[in-house]
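Wait, mind explaining this?

_____
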Amino acid sequence: MLRRLLLSLLVAAPTASAVGAAQETSYLFYVASESDDEVSLMRFTPGQGLVQDKVIPVGVWPAEIEGAHGVYVGPSGDYWYLTLGHGFPFGSLWRYATGADTAISSTTLGMFPSTVATVPGGGLVFAANSDFHGDKVPSSISVVEPETMTELDKIETCTMPHGSRFSPDGKHHYSTCMVDNQLVEIDTDRLVVTRRLDLAEHGTAGVCSPTWVTPAPDGKRAFVACNKGNVILTIDLENWSVVRRIEAQGAPYNMDLTPDGRIVATLKGKAAVGVWNPETGEQLAEVPTSRKVTHGVVVAPDGRYAFVTVEGIGGQPGTVEVIDLASYQTVATEDVGKQAGGMSFWRME
C-alpha cells in the first residue's frame, strides 16, 4: 500500500524541467534618468509586466542636477559604469557593484562625458567627452583603467564625440562626431586614432550629424545613425567606405542589433522606434512610443524584446517601453525619472 502511494506521488509530481518550462524568463537592465540623478534597475517578465526593482540615487551634490547620462554593464556582469555629465567644470565616471548597486570609486573625465563602454572580455573603459554645452571645439575619448579608476589618456578625436562602441574582438573603438560628421576608429592597444571617415556627403543635403555607431558581430561592418541626415549608413570596415544608405526618417539616434541581424533604432524626432533589414534596406516596422524624445535602445540577448527609453518633455517623467520583436507591438511601459536616456542590459534570470 505504501509503495503504491509513493509511486503515485512520484508520477503526479511535476518534473524539474516542467517547472522550469512554466516559469518565464526575467530580463534585468539599468536605465539612467539624467534630470533626476537616478538609475533604475528594471525587471521585465512576460505575463507579469515591467517594474522598477530598485531606484539608485547617484551623484554627490544634493542641490545640483549632475546629469546621469551613460550607463554600461561590464562584460563580467559584476560592475556597471555611469557617466555624470555635469561637474565643476568637468564630468565624471563612476563604478558600481551590480546587485548591491553601491558606488565603489570614481574619476574625473572631460566636459560632459556621455556614452561609455568597456572593452569586450574585460579591460579598459572608454567614455566620449561630448561637451554638449561648450564651445564647438575638438574634444576627446577618455580611457580609464577600471580597477584603480585611473584616467590613462584623453585621445582627441573631434567636435562633440558620441556613441562609444567596440569591435567584437576589442581591437578597435569606434565613435562618431556629431558636429564634424565623422566616424573615428581608435586602436585600443596603441591608443591612437587610426582612421577617420567623412560622412557628411552621405546624409541629407550634406549633413549627417552621426550620433551612434554599432559594429556588427562579424566585425566586417558597422552601422551609423545620421541623426540630422535621416539615414542609417552601412560601413564596410575593411575598405573603410559607405556601402549602403538606409532611409530612416525621424532622426535616428541610438541603435542595437538583434541576433538575426535586424537594426533597431530610436527615432528621436518622431516618437517612434524603427526596425530594418540591413541586407535590403527595407523598413520592417515602425512602433510609436507613448511620449516624445525617444532615446536609448537595447535588444535582449535572446532577441525576443527591445527595451527603449523615452525622455519625455517639460515636467513629464521618463518612460521605459518594451517592444515584442516578433509582433512589433509595445507590450509593457513603466515611468521612471525625468529624461530617461542611457541604458544597458544586465542579465536574464
